[in-house]
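Appendix B, Record 12. Input sequence as logged:
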Amino acid sequence: MSLITILNIIIVNVIVILALSYFWSGWNFKVFKPWLWLEMRKRKQLPSEIERAESHTQDKIRFYSLWFALEQIDTNNVEGSVVFASLEDAEMPVVVRMHSPERKIAIFDSFANRDVEIVRENCQGEISRQVIHIEGVDLEKLKQRIGESEVTYHVGKPAETIADDSKKIALAVIDTVDSEELSSVMKNSYARMSEGGMMIVHDYNHNWDSVRRSVDAFEASIAENFLWLPDMYGSVIMIKNKKNSQL
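Logged structural output:
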């Protein structure tokens, strides 16, 4: 058997393996997509931009969590805007804009590269500090993607700029590992949140002790509990109770 024949056999086998891998992964992902998503897609009720965003998103669970939250606040007519505090993923406000084009969006972020100091505590109670670098979202590029109609951009420290706002909130998406900033943003967002509104905090089940401590302390001060989500870095979600609910 000649060398060329051997190489051809190897190439053919590689192509077959890659093809099988491709079709298997496609089928596998389809099986584990939410039933409602597949039904709406089959009925052509999903905007093409939403489908494209879903296909390009690596963290599918985080995407579907946001999508279902939007579905719920829209279905229940929850009053208020969608708030992003300390934005680290530019795709999320894009999804909101495509899903709920009539709902107002408020983004609170410095839109600049920054260093954040976080505190860690080990099992022996020893405290250590670590500085992490966070790349800021490009403000102008974001404006080009979602525009400025029904969108307000509050440039500055989220804990300070969100305290100056007084508008109702239907959904707050919070993504910061700074404990003081996180605590302040959660407190201000909750105070202005409509009944049935939601709060999503990212990085709870990751390696940021500051996030877990801040969320746990805040949870102990309110009537509601947070539910853990199995996305890539472990978000948590809370739904604000309806005060006039009756059994």
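The beta strands are 81-85, 105-109, 114-121, 127-134, 151-155, 169-174, 193-201, 227-228, 236-239.
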